Amino acid sequence: MEWEEFFNSIGFWYNIFVEWYLSAPIVAQVFAIIGLVTIFALAVTLVYFAIKGVAYLVYYILKGLYLLLKYIGYGFYKLTEGFYLLVSGKKKPSKAKSSQTNIQNTVSYHQNYILEFCSECGRKVSDRMKVNFEKNGMTFCENCGTQLNLNHALKTITISH
Fold first, then answer.
1. What is the distance between the alpha carbons of residues 85 and 96, in angstroms, rounded to a whole number?
2. Minimal CA–CA distance to 34: which of 45, 42, 22?
3. Residue 53 is inside which H or E element, if any?
4. Which letter, b or e, does each residue of 52-72 get, where b requires 16 or more Cβ atoms within 10 Å of its Cβ?
5. Is the dihedral of CA 124, 135, 139, 99 positive or negative?
6. What's the alpha-carbon Rg for the chain, to the nearest Å?
7. Are 34 and 26 within 8 A, CB to CB?
8. Per residue in 110-143, pLDDT tens?
């Protein structure tokens, strides 16, 4: 019964509006249409931004909870790792050693690359020049007499890359 009364009251107010609208002058009818369209647009905009705001709120709350739990878990992991290392007496592996190894590998790679050809004349470097280069970090080209050293060669390689 309540729905029937509700629809009857909507129909009643709709009929009153239609009677007023038809009896009003044309200017009032145009302004009434403009006003109704404006109110409808504002209502749609309000609903859109309300839904968007709630969606953003839910998204950022869930993202915050995720990050909070992630970093709590990471802290728990680091705490248990530290406790394990303390109890077992082991030391945490250092990252400095691996970077030192990488530097040495890079230098030896560059030395092998550098010792293939002379940077000035382009001729192949002899075995005697390679041994000299590995001992002293520098050598002279047997063909053109240019001094080849590690620092100069590394600079030319980094510039060419």
1. 19
2. 42
3. helix 26-88
4. eeeeeeeeeeeeeeeeeeeee
5. positive
6. 41
7. no
8. 445 556 777 778 788 788 877 877 777 778 888 8
